[in-house]
Every structure is written in structure tokens, then in C-alpha cells.
Amino acid sequence: xxxxxxxxxxxxxxxxxxxxxxxxxxxxxTERHRLGVSPxxxxxxxxxxxxxxxxxxPHTSAGRIPTDKGYRLFVDKLAGVKPLSSPERRAIQNxxxxxxxxxxxxxxxxxxxxxxxxxxxxxxxxxxxRSTVRHVELLSLAPxxxxxxxxxxxxxxxxxxxxxxxxxxxxxxxxxxxxLNSRVVGRxxxxxxxxxxxxxxxxxxxxxxxxxxxxxxxxxxxVEEAEERLMIGGTANxxxxxxxxxLTIRPVLEALEEQVVLLKLLGExxxxxxxxxxxxxxxxxxxxxxxxxxxxxxxGGEAVAKLGVVGPTRMDYPGTMGAVRAVxxxxxxxxxxx
Length: 338
Description:
Layout: H1 4-20, H2 26-32, H3 39-51, E1 55-56, E2 65-66, H4 68-78, H5 86-97, H6 102-117, E3 120-124, E4 133-142, E5 145-152, E6 157-163, H7 170-184, H8 192-196, H9 205-224, E7 230-233, H10 250-257, H11 259-267, E8 274-278, E9 290-297, E10 305-312, H12 317-337
Antiparallel strand pairs: 1-2, 3-7, 3-10, 4-5, 5-6, 8-9, 9-10
Helix pairs in contact: 1-3, 1-4, 2-3, 5-12, 6-12
């Protein structure tokens, strides 16, 4: 275990390196921070930190920089989550409150996260497998043509056109709408199939074909939309950090194009808790020079999806974690109120 003084030295090194982009020397540390010890003692502490693998010396500099292990200890022991200022919180709320639908919420969230953190923002759409039914609407477009509108508790709206095997009257349509909603409203999508399977039998023989067709379309919609979707923004921010990537930025950009990779990274976040994956903790090799900060969001206490940012390991962790957590909280509130 490191002593409290050496933990303070590590904290100072991380803060200085993140702030200045320059390797940190003992003289600079004693000038910038009130460590209460001599430069010689700081040099000794830095030597111990280097031996333990928390900091390293770049070939071209006399200073030291944090390693993945050093950042990990900083995040776990030393970094509080930096609270946002009142103007920042108001700006987040005002920006997100203007959203008109779920696509707009996700799009605004991506732009906001990228601006606040100056990193690459990734937002997962709410998963239908974790969503519940708010309402099922059936509209008659022609005697034998209907529109099915499925609305989730997260504000997601899915529409499908249905060609019926025979004309379906308004009375039968109202009856089906009422019976369908009585069975599925407030239920998880994954629970819907067994709840509706016997519904056709409760209708007159001439209407059963149409009822079965409507139910088939509803269940197909659940299967089709089970595929997870992401929105990503702020990729251009990576160009500001060219020197943070040891060889080239290309592997990072290629990884960001692989939605399966990003979904796996976001999936490592706990339901609503925050996850910070640093450098080589990311299983995907192309992201070994990056850190991923992610958290779940949703209405109530349950996360329906994840959001987060990807950036270089030389990241303002307290500020980034604070921004990610704050945005997730506001998005959850919007979903709850929508």
C-alpha cells in the first residue's frame, strides 16, 4: 500500500499532466503543490511510484507521466466526481428540455456530452427488451388496412402498416384496441407474447384472421427492434489529442465505427452505476490508448440504456465523470416525464 504522501504526489502528477500535457518533474510539483516536503523527498516518492508501475518516464523527457495503473488508482482512490456549476446544470436542462421526441433526445444528448467533455460521446437508444408498453394504438386507413402504433415508457414510437386478410370494422377495431391495451400496458416487451396468444379466440370467426395478423405484426416489431442502436458524436474532438495516441489515431477511429465494440464497452457499466475503463482494461486492442467513462440512464431506478464518452487516457476524470453522471440524470428525468 502507498503512503498518503505518495498518493498525494500521484494525484499531483495526474492533475499536472492532464492540465499541461507535459511530463511532470519533482521541481514543478513542489512549486505548484503544497506537498509539505522537499524536492528530494518528492523525487524519492516518484522513484517509488515508478518502481511500483504507477508512473513512467517518456524517453524524451526527464519528467514522469501516469501509467494506466496510475490513472486507475487515481480514479479509485483520489478522484471525486466534480459537481457541475449551477449555470452548467441549467444549460443542460434547458438544452435537453427542448427535445421533441426520442431521436431528438438522443441527438441532443450526444452533442451535449461531446461539448461538455470535449471527448467522443456515445449514447445507446433505450432498449426495447428493458422497456414497457405505454400504449398500443390501432388506426383504420382503409377497410382492410390498419396502422399499428407502439409507444414505450421511454418515449420510443414504432409504426407499422398492416394489410388485413378481410375488412375490419370500427367496432371490432375499438374492441381489439381495448383488449390489447388491457393486457399489455405497463408490461415489459419480453412479457407480451404469452399475454396475447389466446386473443384471436375471443373474437368472432370472421375477425380472427385480422386479429392474428395484428398480433403477428406486433410481435415481429419487438423482434426487429431488439437490435441495439447507438448514436455517436464529437469524433473530431480526437484530433485535438493526436499526441496522446502513441502510433496513430486510426485504430481508435476504426473501433468507434464498430457498434458491437461500443455496445460491449457500454454494457460493462453497471445498471445505473458508473464504469471507468482505462487503457488496456479495454478488451478491444484499438482502444488500448483510450479511457471509456459510462453510466446507465433511465426512468426510475432502472437503467434502460447506457451513455458515455471515449477519450485519451490523459483525461480530466473528475470533470468527465461529473458531466456523464449529470447528463444521464437529466435524460432519465426527461424519459420519466415524456
